[in-house]
TrEMBL record:
Record-level Gene Ontology MF annotations: AMP dimethylallyltransferase activity; ATP binding; ATP/ADP dimethylallyltransferase activity; tRNA dimethylallyltransferase activity
Gene Ontology annotations of biological process type: cytokinin biosynthetic process; tRNA modification
Domain of life: Eukaryota
Descriptive protein name: adenylate dimethylallyltransferase (ADP/ATP-dependent)
PANTHER family hit by this protein: ADENYLATE ISOPENTENYLTRANSFERASE 5, CHLOROPLASTIC, TRNA DIMETHYLALLYLTRANSFERASE
The UniProt record lists the keyword Repeat: no
GO cellular component: mitochondrion
Annotated EC: 2.5.1.112
Region (Disordered): 260-289
Enzyme class of the recorded protein, top EC level: transferase
Keywords: ATP-binding, Cytokinin biosynthesis, Nucleotide-binding, Transferase, Transit peptide
Gene source species: Prunus avium
Record family assignment: Belongs to the IPP transferase family.
Catalytic activity: dimethylallyl diphosphate + ADP = N(6)-(dimethylallyl)adenosine 5'-diphosphate + diphosphate; dimethylallyl diphosphate + ATP = N(6)-(dimethylallyl)adenosine 5'-triphosphate + diphosphate
Amino acid sequence: MKLFMSPGLPSINMDPSFRRKDKVIVVMGATGTGKSKLAIDLATRFPAEIINSDEMQVYQGLDIVTNKVTEEECRGIPHHLLGIMDPKFNFTANDFKQHASLAIESILERDRLPIITGGSNSYIEALVDDHPEFRMKCECCFIWVDVALPVLKSFVSERVDRMVEAGLVDEVRRMFDSTAEAEYTHGIRKAIGMLEMDEYLRGEACGINDEETQERLLQTAISKIKENTCILADRQLQKIRRLCSRRNWNMHRLDATEVFSKRKSSSRNSNTKSSGDAAPRSGAVGKETPVLLTAGVPRGPEILHTKPM
């Protein structure tokens, strides 16, 4: 059927198959950039729920090692795919695609906004680019939280120190099995911190009583955790850049470098004034993400209608 419209009147799509696409927000960024904090802040401005897209955080356990948000930090916002899987199994990108699709559907049915966040960019790619039905039904607004690597690496190093103070070693020790052959390629055992602590914990299990040797092994393990976390951040950043250049994604880049730099300077001044605040608070490990991070993000419904940066 051909529809004739008077001049000046908007055209109307009479195709019965036409439907307005549902909106989905995706918060991306390298490890340590404050994705979870930003996602939660955004979720307080909408009727929204959050879907975790970090592979290691999908698994049960190792909450400190994987840097999961605490119940307090969630601020009452429902989270999906967070700490739900048996740590022995592999949760693949295809698994995420299927589970995330169901979560998105249930969130939309409740007239709420799905916000996806996490560091496993292959998960996002599988959902957005390898899922024709998702592309047909949903329109994504991508927010890329970017921090200059030198600044981010310094922050990551400090975050690892806070995680160690909060009990990272004991957490890995509880999952460590000295009788088993070392295997760190499946499930949650792939998490940074497991393989790196292996030599130290094996020495401990073998009854090495030389405190100097054990301390050296521990410090070496911590250094490896920092190094490999920085390597991960670099790799994640490269992946995001490739996605920006190769995919037609509606990407909004939020440069948080200055905010992180100010936070570091403020923290340094605070530590100079008082050394009594050095220990992290329970439930706040590694989560001292700058509170001004949302300053460059469109507020309210604007975020769903802005052009990419």
